[in-house]
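INFO worker-7 received task bundle
INFO bundle size: 2
INFO processing item 0
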Amino acid sequence: MTPDDERLLRQAIGLAATARAAGEPPFGSLLTGPDGEVLAEEHNTSIGDRDITAHPELKLARWAARELAPEVAAATTMYTSCQPCGMCAGAIERSGLGRVVYALSTEQLTPLKPPVTAPPVRLDGPALPDEARAVVEGYYM
C-alpha cells in the first residue's frame, strides 16, 4: 500500500459514509486511471433505486466496460470500502479492470451485518446440456 493507495481508499470510505448518511447501505468505491486520476466514483443506492444490484463496484465495472478501451480498463485501480461481493467480483473480472484495493474484508464485514435468514436457493441442473451446448459452442472462438 502506497500513501496514494491509502488516500484513495479513505476517499472510498468517505463515499460509504455519504451513502450511509443518505439512508443507503454504507458502501463506496472509486475508479482511478493509469495516472492515478479519479475517473468515476459511486456509492450504494440499492434502497433509493429499489435495485438490489446498485452496488458501487458493479456500477463502476459497468461504466468502465462501456466507456474505457480494454487497455485503459486493464490499467485502472478500483478503491472500495469493502471487499466486492460475488456479483460485483464477477462484473469487475468481466469488465477487465486491473486492480482492486479494499478496506474491509468479507470476513470482517460479516459479523457487522445481521444474519441471513432467507432459505438457500435450490439449484437443479445441469439439464439438457447437449442442447444448451449446441447454442453456445463456437461463440467464444
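INFO item 0 finished
INFO processing item 1
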Amino acid sequence: MGSLSPAKIVLPNNDLEQQTITTTLEIETKDFDYSKRSQWLRAAVLGANDGLVSTASLMMGVGAVKQDIKAMILTGFAGLVAGACSMAIGEFVSVYSQLDIEVAQMKREKEREHGGGEREDANDEEKESLPNPLQAAAASALAFSVGAIVPLLAASFIREYKVRLGVIVAAVSFALVVFGWLGAVLGKAPVLRSSVRVLLGGWMAMAITFGLTKLIGSSGLN
C-alpha cells in the first residue's frame, strides 16, 4: 500500500507538466507565426485595396470620356501592370531599408555584449523574425493584381455603357467592404467603422476621377 502511493502522486504531476509545456509551446508557436506573417499580411491588404481603387478609378476616368469597352479594358490592364510593378518595387525598397536598420541595430547590441554564446543564439532567433523584402514585394504585387482584377472582370463582359459603369461601381463597392472588413480583423479594429471608411474613400476616388476627367473631356480635349 505504501509503495503505490508515490506512483499515484508522480503521474498526475508529470501529466500536468506535459500539458503546461505543450500549452507554452503552442503559445510561442502562435506568437512566432503572427510576428513572421504580419509584414506580408499588411502589404497584402494595402496592396489589394490600392489595386482595387486605383484601377477602378482609372477605368471610370476613361469611361467618362470614352464609351468604348476596349479602351476601358486596356486602361485597366495597363493600370494593373504598372501598379503591381510600382507596389512591388516600393515595398521591396521600404522593407529592405527596414531590414538594414534592424540588422545594424542587432550588430550594435551584439558588440556591446562581451561574451556569451547565448547572445549568438538570441541573434539567430531574431534574424529569423526579420522582415523579408522579397516576400513583402511579391505579396504586395500579387495583392494589387487581385484587387485590380475586380473592376476588370466586372467590365469585361458588358457592352452597354451605363450598365457597365454601374456594374463596376457595384463590384468595387462590395470588394471595398470586404477589404475594409479584412483589414479591421487583421488590425483588431472596429469592423463597421473600418469598412465604411474604406468604402467612402473608394467612392470619393472614383467620383473625383470621373468628374475631373469628364470636365476636361467636355472642354474639347477628348
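INFO item 1 finished
INFO post-check item 1: Residues 1-13, 20-36 have pLDDT under 50 and may be disordered.
INFO post-check item 1: The helical segments are 4-65, 69-112, 117-128, 133-156, 161-187, 191-221.
INFO worker-7 idle
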